[in-house]
Design brief:
homodimer, Aldehyde Dehydrogenase, Chain A, domain 1, Aldehyde Dehydrogenase, Chain A, domain 2, five-stranded parallel sheet, globular
Chain lengths: 554, 554
Amino acid sequence: MTNQTMNLFEKHKNTLTIAVKALGQRTYYTPYPENPKGYAEDADLKAKNWISATMNNDFKGLKQTGETSWHGEEISPFLQIGVGVRYPIFTVDTLINNATKAQNTWSKTSIEERTAILIESLDRISTRFFDIAYATMHTTGQAFMMSFQASGPHANDRALEAIASGYQELTRYPQNVEWIKNFGKFDLKINKDFKPVAKGVGLVIGCSTFPIWNSVPGLYATLITGNACIVKPHPKAILPIAIVIQELQNVLAENGFDTNTVQLAADSSANPITKQLAENSAVKMVDFTGSSEFGNYIETLPKLTFTEKAGVNSIILDSVNELQPVLANIAFSASLYSGQMCTAPQNIFVSKNGVQTANGIISYEDVVKGIAAAITGLVDNPKAGPGTLGAIQAEATYKRANEAKSLGGVLVLDSKAIKNEEFVDARIATPVVIEVDKTQKEIYNQECFGPILFIVKTDSVENSLELCKTLVMEKGALTCGAYTTNNETKETIATEMNNAFVPVTFNFTGAGFINSHAAFSDFHLTGGNPAGNASFTNTEFVSKRFVWVGNRYM
Amino acid sequence: MTNQTMNLFEKHKNTLTIAVKALGQRTYYTPYPENPKGYAEDADLKAKNWISATMNNDFKGLKQTGETSWHGEEISPFLQIGVGVRYPIFTVDTLINNATKAQNTWSKTSIEERTAILIESLDRISTRFFDIAYATMHTTGQAFMMSFQASGPHANDRALEAIASGYQELTRYPQNVEWIKNFGKFDLKINKDFKPVAKGVGLVIGCSTFPIWNSVPGLYATLITGNACIVKPHPKAILPIAIVIQELQNVLAENGFDTNTVQLAADSSANPITKQLAENSAVKMVDFTGSSEFGNYIETLPKLTFTEKAGVNSIILDSVNELQPVLANIAFSASLYSGQMCTAPQNIFVSKNGVQTANGIISYEDVVKGIAAAITGLVDNPKAGPGTLGAIQAEATYKRANEAKSLGGVLVLDSKAIKNEEFVDARIATPVVIEVDKTQKEIYNQECFGPILFIVKTDSVENSLELCKTLVMEKGALTCGAYTTNNETKETIATEMNNAFVPVTFNFTGAGFINSHAAFSDFHLTGGNPAGNASFTNTEFVSKRFVWVGNRYM
């Protein structure tokens, strides 16, 4: 360990200590302020200039050489024109050879060195949060605030969580012990060392909607455990993670490490390299976020896999004190980033007998109308609508939302475009609301990614729970919401859904939304239901990436 | 939690605390004395009476009902006659239904309740150590001392290790926290709970040579994490684990729990039920010890698997201070239980240039002769031979040892029968020693289970290491021994073998043997090489068996 990295470790030791403690406490903790005002005053202006200068140019910031060509196909959902950034394209062989070579040296570094480098990279990334925000906006369609928070501080939180968890597990056992067994007449003394040995090159496969937030947990978990990492982003959302990799490579270079320890593996829709990389025998672990179909394929590979696939999130609406705040909360959760969050609710299960409130029962019909009204109220408000909805990332999602009314059921509220003053060409679709009967499972028992909400009319809350649980066991879910003022019902819902390995969020109103999973407190995914086999960040998420080996010496 | 189980938890709390601490320290710790003299004076006599009364009778000690028939086919390797004990046979449906029902209640118990029940069961089992020793002798062929230690205290140590590790992981997070996020003008307060949810019924598949030691880690890891467990022993080695299950069921019954939380699933060689159980969708996790062929099949099942398969263990003999103690140590390791330990060495890699000692070089030829002489000296000593060798468990192993000389290579020392005064009909085979050239990989690059030792003539220590590492990467290994007085060589061997996920044991002489893996200190298997995907007991061994779920409440 050089003096330089030793100083770097000292610099970040306090952050590490607090982060490790936070992992165990699971109370509120975030080292990176989520409010843009917490950063340099001129940062926003500089970032606007940066994105202007970056668009329509080749991305030259990486320390990777030997590209065979340059390619880019990102389209801004807000501008509906190409972003115009091209990225270096490498052969699979080049990527694998570089990674294998880097693995050799990176795996030999000390845990402290890796920790120092990785936390330092997060600090550097935090100086780019505004650049990252604009890069995220113009690839994913997230509105500015979400782009800033989800790709910036919240992603850094998750990355730090993976580093802290890795550090904790990697230092769980003493490096050396003297083991003494008394045999009466003599002692048998054996010296032992315990070494966490890195498993091998990792591959992180990104998605188009959360290109940083969903990728950095796997990336940092791979790196902290001593493994080199190849990051294969979605070809439509490369720019945000390219910045992250640029900063990581800078810190690696400054401290004398192989910059290929982390590589960007951009590809094109026409010539995808994901399967070639994933199937390569040198790749020992794969982190994946994306479709269930591809995720299921990844899980069949004879290697370590960490997947986040599709799920169908539901809300069970049984009884409330006051209905309006609940409807407003649901409307926001369903509208935020136009339902393109993996944690967005899709199905609202409501009993035909309506919803009990402190002021009597609200009929099922009025609840349906209320949900539609709450959505309309939100999206039609020019101060709230555009910033909540953002834009639709993919043409297919836009089409799905607009064609949802022909899926069957009763159309309650159609999707529409609202005006975004700042981006008049933005691809916008407000949530479509469709009422279905509990028997119409062919409609609601599948993920309809995007701003599509089904209100499912059930016989009772018990029936709602049964349908919700069955759905989760078949299709998986990242979250489940429930509104009930009855303690027994609350307990039953928690028990039943938890037994299907899905967490439940009860009675959220105001500033609490089921969509949000806070680092250092909420596990993102449980790893136990069909929505994915990983969990951000339980111990397995890091401990599977290395092997404990203990040598003995006499 | 009843008063009774609360008292039970208090009773064992100290043991638990010490065990959890020991897990992290990895120094010497064993709560169950390994010396038979540490137990009741009349225990041995009582056990001798017990085994006499037990043989040729039905095993009626279990609290399982609804058997369709009774069956037993164990043969004592010491007597070479049938043990004559019959066990109740159940249909797969009965076993699965019972387990599913028991899972329902057991998964709802508190961690403290489970811990109390399970540690209490170990105490009860310890009162049966002598019974277990005789049961183990007459099914596995282990000599008395190994039967006593491996199936008794050492197995209990490993079981306690799994309980302690489970307790530690299950209590890693607070059950409830208040999460408060400040929004400037107001606080968002969310109550959260964190629940470890049991994954589902476990199946433990036992082997014929270590029917308890290899089964209890998986059994206790399954139980402590809230899962019911079906134990499917090898049809030739049921009696030892039947005692363990009997004691577990007794403690369950006394404390009002479903005794089907753990079930014995005996079967027969003619009508095996292992695959039916393993493939049943209600079974969520499988612990397996046995052949690589069956283990590889188990690993392909779409469920959680923990395997210990075959491996080829090697010793690299480079340089020593004094050769004789080293040869004696190797001879003992190879002869102990006639090489039927999964940690027994099979290949001794020696350079054609011989072995450097403090008194000059000993030629390769003299080393070969020395190994043979050390084995002969051990096995021909009537005070040491029979107690070290024990008997051969399976006819196939006996045949393999006797036919090994026709595998190729040069026969250095043939296998033979020695006299066991106590058991004149014992099936005995001393180690056969065969000299092979490094090029004869078709002979030595495979597991030859039993008392078979290959001395591989290599070009140099570097060549030995290369051959050893390649073998491990292809076939796996549980351990590797090395003798070298050169620090640089030592470091190279450790690094290279560790990178293949195999631990190295250096320069063992005297009372230290590479065969021994001590609970709370040595990981048994790393989980990283082809010899198996599990490790006794790293955190994954328990944490994979449950899922963290966090509910949120407003």
